[in-house]
Amino acid sequence: AQAVSPPPAGCRSGSVEVPRSVTAVLGQDVVLPCGYRAQEGEKVVQVTWLKRGAAGPAEVAVLNPEHGEHVKEAYAGRVLRRAPGALDDGAIVLKN
């Protein structure tokens, strides 16, 4: 998950919760978890998934409640949002 802007000085913000590692089995689906524990008054407005690579980070998917979900062409049909609703759960499923 990616914060849109930093909180004002002196304000607390929530925290992104992701596991340190995820184990996957070749050929099977895997859930890539990403949760946000919001503070009072906060709302997640967008989640952006990036893949690290030698050439730098590459966008995989953007989850946005207003503009919908956008998955880069290389991942079309392979990346799905795990759960509908609020983006506090920004997990995706990577198929196969």
UniProtKB/TrEMBL annotation:
PANTHER family linked to this entry: NECTIN-4 (PTHR23277:SF11), NECTIN-RELATED (PTHR23277)
The Immunoglobulin V-set domain, residue ranges: 18-66
A biological process from GO: heterophilic cell-cell adhesion via plasma membrane cell adhesion molecules
UniProt keyword list: Disulfide bond, Glycoprotein, Membrane, Repeat, Signal
Entry annotated with the keyword Glycoprotein: yes
Keyword DNA repair: no
A GO cellular-component term linked to this record: adherens junction
Main localisation: membrane
Lineage: Eukaryota, Metazoa, Chordata, Craniata, Vertebrata
Protein's cellular compartments: Membrane
Name of the molecule in the record: NECT4 protein
